Amino acid sequence: MKPPPAEGITSERDFVDFINALNAQWIAASKRLSPRVMTDLYERASRDLADWFESLSLDAPALFPVSWAGDQASAGWFDIGREFTELWHHQQQIRMAVGADVRSNPRYQAAVIDVAVRGLPHAFRDVPAAPGEAVAIDISGPAGGRWTLVRGTERWTLSRGEPSVATARIRLDDDAAWKLLFNALSENDAGQAVRVSLVHVVKDQYEIVCETRVQSLADQLRPHIRAATRRQRRHARHHLRQRRPQRRQHAGGERVDRAIARRQRVPGALQIGDPGS
pLDDT of 146-161, one tens digit each? Predict the structure, then answer.
């Protein structure tokens, strides 16, 4: 790195401060450049950067670990993937800001989402849950996919595919997914785009104990996971005795549909409606 940081980088906070300082310097300097000079510089720098990345070993240690994934050391491919997500989502934000077309090749968008979700275990590091509790993430659309967050004895881990049993299921489409993962989704839009369903297992049958729209993954799923292991289980037993759908208005104005769906254990039994393609 030339020149080296003025202060040593010994923590994630130091690294973030260093990046923010670089960004501020470039913003100040670029105000004196014309749009033509900016686009010419960007074209040249992008071409040189691509050539340099293609010369790197994908399995060699990265110069910097991917801090938002909680890594102390990362493989080269992950660092390159992180850089790709930065380039991709910032150009999308620029397009949104100037009213340009934001449609993207699903191949590239899928790669962005696949890299970004790898930060979820670190983001959920303080979310309390019993070992074995699983969160299914279902992203629909041509750039979507399915992932599972599982709580181990010490930390959360992420894998592709669906769990046989999930404590909670998150559903959203691929357009909402990238915006949510990169803080480009407003609270109102997130509240409409993201749906979280809690599922509790009694014997060999599934009970859908709560379904609600949420505003963010990290903030809203934490109380849901805690509820799924404590209060919601008591509610589930109560609803089973009632055996009828209920709807009530929460004090905060959020409408929550509660219903009990008892199903045999078959593939797709955890689905609530049509998850999309």
Answer: 999 999 998 999 999 9
Q: Which residues of 29-53 are buried (b: 16+ CB within 10 A; e: fewer)?
A: eeeeeeeeeeeeeeeeeeeeeeeee
CA 39 to centroid of chain Cα atoms = 31
pTM: 0.67
> What gap in Å lies between CA 72 and CA 69, rounded to an integer?
9
182 Cβ contact list (under 8 Å, min separation 6): 85, 89, 93, 116
Separation CA 146–CA 141 (nearest Å): 11
Residue 237 tokens read as 């037993």
Is the dihedral angle over the CA atoms 267, 268, 269, 270 positive or is it negative? positive
**DSSP-assigned letter for residue 61:** B
Enumerate domains of the chain plus CATH numbers. 12-116 (no CATH), 127-264 (3.30.1050)
First-last CA distance in the chain: 44
